[in-house]
Design brief:
Blueprint lengths: L5 E2 L3 E9 L3 E8 L4 E8 L4 H14 L10 E7 L2 E7 L3 E3 H5 L19 H20 L2 E2 L8 E4 L5 E3 L6 E2 L21 H4 L6 H17 L8 H8 L16 H10 L10 H7 L22 H15 L4 E7 L5 H15 L3 E7 L4 E2 L6 H11 L4 H7 L5 H6 L4 H11 L9 H22 L1 E7 L6 H11 L8 E7 H4 L5 H7 L3 E4 L5 H12 L6 H11 L4 H14 L10 H10 L3 H13 L3 E2 H8 L4 H10 L3 E6 L2 E6 L2 H9 L3 H15 L6 H10 L3 H17 L3 H14 L4 H12 L1
């Protein structure tokens, strides 16, 4: 790509920023988001590189934290793949803390100066906070190094990036023994260099190397790849004070502790933040609380167990797990899969998820095929030869991560790929190959497939799933699809999938009052003095939503002693929680609440008038304060619960409320919206003259639709607002009330 090029009809390339082993990064202007972004593209679209590239996006797409880079979209255009992300103007961690002026691409770098401790004191806690957030989400970075830690030149914000080696530590990974060495030798931990099982301590070792380099000006070991790895094995690294003077004792001690050879001897993220005087990012981990999230879900677990039993007896079974946002669909399926993994040693579980902000072919099944590709990468050539159908080439056209399989098969069987056919024939052959591949896989081992958030899939994915799963003679496996009931109808994928694929239904209903109380009590633990009383308050307000119960528990525990009493109201605890938000996030939430109904992103963005809109929206979504929904006109957002909206509005005084209504009205005037809605905002903003015309327009629209009662009400309202047109309006009122 060159400056001046336009990519995917939206990204205008300004300049090349830098490059690494796998990718090249450009500064671009996104015509859709109307902002400057960084655009990362692959150097070579090898299956392994493409898998890493997509995993980088999918690992972070739902996370919102100030010290983690914000990812926007995953886009494919032919054989080219791109990830757009926020653009950070600045330099890397070592440049910042050692006083090196940030250089632009192509500029000559000055030699590093000595460490500036005031900068280190600003930057190091931010790096720790970002990494703790990542670990709390069940992920390891595995490639912490200065070039992957940027610092903003203007705001001194530390941002962790480049998640191509990120590894999940939840049940879908079942351990983190990679069996291979990945990362940068100078910064990787001893256990990572040996391909051993990893935990958060491995990332903290890399932070220790960065701190050592910041304090001394160099990493502890240099040499060849193997010399560096051998130097780390079996011993601790001496503290930086042994080779540099003037290092504060607390930093010297922290660096020494981070570089302990034994991972168990290194401090945890929470301990590191306490040394800085900070606290860890708040969280409630339902996984850490055992089966708490499954209160009231035993009947649904039994349905999944029954489907599994029937599938393992030889009949292909598809089961759809449905429920509103926050009903606990993912938690239910995860618990079921965890149970079956423990019970069935030879069970293979392949999981995928649909992502709303992906624009890739077959987005409904792409991540599932990636999981299949990773599984086959661990097989021997002979096993792959027995597993993979002869006609694999068309499937590679659909899913490039399968090319490793195709290359191996062609080499072993000495066959030439036959792609001399029209596109429809190639697609049908690809579909047939995927069906045969699953059939052979299910004959080899017990097989369960799980796709989460199917509502974000596409029609092509539904048609492929139909081909792979439909009877007769379908592969003997259990296929689980989870999707939001409230988004199913507007989904391009779900209606087609349900129409074509026979399936059982598991429909998650709201929890009963007793179940809500039990869940709240379990999640509260001993965090409050009278948990039964607080649990009763939460159960009464949560509407049977497991997720909202968890959010109310978090609100109570975050609120502190001031409101942790039995007569505390939900409004009080939510107010405390909302006050802890960044001002930009609170302002956006209040704008959404003031609107009083789902609002499209575009007018909301205009009403906000500036700021990091996408990042702020993601913060609110990640904290379960708002939820989005795809509609025919685009994506809308709304408060997750009426109580959240009420709490957000309660923090506005009358003048602030009028200002929000005025901002919304001004933004909405440029879009096609209901005239009465516009009038309501203008009236609430104390602008009756502007409102009058919209009320009259709404009345005429209602009359044209033959909604005479509504038209009469609106004409009466227009008469009150605009007495100068009273005669004309009364005549129209008489006409609609005849």
């Amino acid at each position: 790509m060159n400056p001046g090029d336009t990519i995917a009809n939206r990204y205008y390339v300004r300049r090349r920023i830098g490059s690494g082993t796998f990718g090249i990064v450009y500064e671009v202007f996104d015509n859709v988001r109307n902002k400057v972004l960084a655009l990362k593209t692959l150097r070579q679209t090898t299956p392994d590189a493409l898998y890493r590239f997509k995993r980088e996006f999918r690992s972070l797409s739902d996370m919102a934290e100030r010290n983690l880079v914000r990812l926007y979209d995953l886009v494919s255009e032919g054989d080219r793949w791109f990830v757009s992300m926020e653009f950070i103007r600045g330099g890397n961690f070592i440049e910042y803390v050692r006083g090196t002026p940030f250089a632009s691409a192509g500029d000559e770098q000055e030699q590093p100066a000595g460490v500036e401790f005031h900068r280190l004191a600003l930057a190091l806690p931010q790096l720790a906070t970002g990494l703790v957030t990542l670990h709390n989400a069940g992920k390891l970075h595995r490639d912490i190094k200065p070039s992957n830690v940027l610092v903003g030149a203007d705001d001194h914000r530390v941002v962790l990036l480049d998640f191509g080696l990120v590894l999940d530590t939840d049940l879908f990974s079942r351990g983190t023994n990679t069996g291979a060495t990945s990362g940068t030798p100078a910064y990787m931990s001893p256990e990572q260099s040996e391909g051993a099982r990893l935990g958060p301590a491995s990332d903290w070792y890399a932070v220790g190397i960065i701190l050592y380099e910041a304090l001394t000006g160099d990493v502890p070991f240099r040499g060849t790849y193997m010399e560096i790895l051998d130097s780390k094995r079996g011993r601790d690294i001496p503290p930086p004070s042994t080779i540099a003077s003037g290092i504060p004792p607390e930093l010297d001690e922290l660096c020494r502790d981070l570089l302990r050879f034994d991972p168990a001897s290194r401090p945890t993220g929470e301990e590191i933040l306490r040394r800085f005087g900070d606290s860890a990012p708040p969280r409630i981990s339902f996984a850490a609380r055992g089966s708490g999230f499954l209160v009231g879900r035993q009947p649904y677990l039994r349905a999944l167990r029954g489907a599994f039993s029937d599938a393992m007896d030889g009949g292909p079974i598809t089961i759809c797990v449905q429920g509103d946002s926050g009903a606990g669909k993912t938690a239910l399926v995860r618990a079921f899969l965890e149970e079956k993994r423990d019970e069935v040693p030879d069970l293979l579980v392949l999981t995928g998820r649909c992502y709303q902000r992906e624009s890739v072919p077959y987005k409904g099944v792409d991540s599932l095929v990636d999981a299949l590709s990773r599984y086959t990468s661990r097989l021997s050539p002979a096993e792959i030869d027995a597993l993979v159908p002869r006609d694999i080439a068309p499937a590679e056209q659909l899913f490039p991560t399968l090319r490793n399989l195709g290359d191996l098969i062609r080499m072993r069987r000495r066959v030439v790929p036959d792609l001399d056919a029209n596109q429809h024939d190639l697609r049908q052959r690809a579909f047939a190959t995927m069906r045969e591949l699953l059939f052979r896989l299910a004959e080899r081992t017990k097989l369960v497939l799980f796709i989460d958030d199917l509502q974000w899939g596409d029609i092509d994915s539904a048609e492929l799933l139909d081909e792979m799963l439909r009877p007769p003679n379908a592969p003997p496996l259990l296929f689980i699809a989870a999707y939001r009931s409230d988004a199913a109808e507007s989904s391009p994928c779900v209606p087609t999938f349900r129409e074509r694929v026979p399936a059982r239904d598991v429909i998650l209903e709201p929890l009963t009052s007793e179940e809500s109380h039990a869940l709240a009590l379990e999640l509260l633990g001993d965090s409050v003095t009278e948990p039964a009383e607080v649990a009763a308050i939460i159960a009464n307000e949560a509407g049977g939503s497991p997720l909202f119960i968890g959010e109310l528990v978090r609100a109570f525990t975050m609120a502190g002693p001031a409101v942790l009493r039995r007569d505390a109201t939900i409004l009080q605890v939510l107010q405390v929680r909302l006050r802890s938000l960044p001002l930009s996030a609170l302002g956006l939430l209040q704008m959404i609440a003031v609107h009083g109904r789902p609002i499209l992103r575009a007018p909301l963005h205009r009403a906000l008038s500036g700021g990091e809109f996408d990042k702020t929206l993601t913060i609110l979504t990640a904290q379960n304060l708002i939820r989005g929904r795809e509609t025919a006109r685009g994506e809308t957002v709304e408060p997750y619960h009426d109580r959240i909206a009420e709490a957000a509005l309660s923090l506005l005084d009358e003048e602030e409320l009028r200002q929000r209504h005025a901002q919304l009205a001004t933004a909405l005037e440029t879009f096609e919206v209901d005239a009465e809605l516009l009038a309501d905002h203008l009236l609430a903003a104390a602008l009756p003259d502007r409102a009058a015309g919209y009320v009259e327009r709404a009345a005429e629209n209602a009359a044209a639709a033959l909604a005479f009662d509504r038209a009469a009400r609106l004409f009466r309202r227009a008469i009150t607002l605009n007495p100068t047109r009273a005669r004309v309006l009364r005549q129209r009122l008489a006409e609609v009330t005849e």
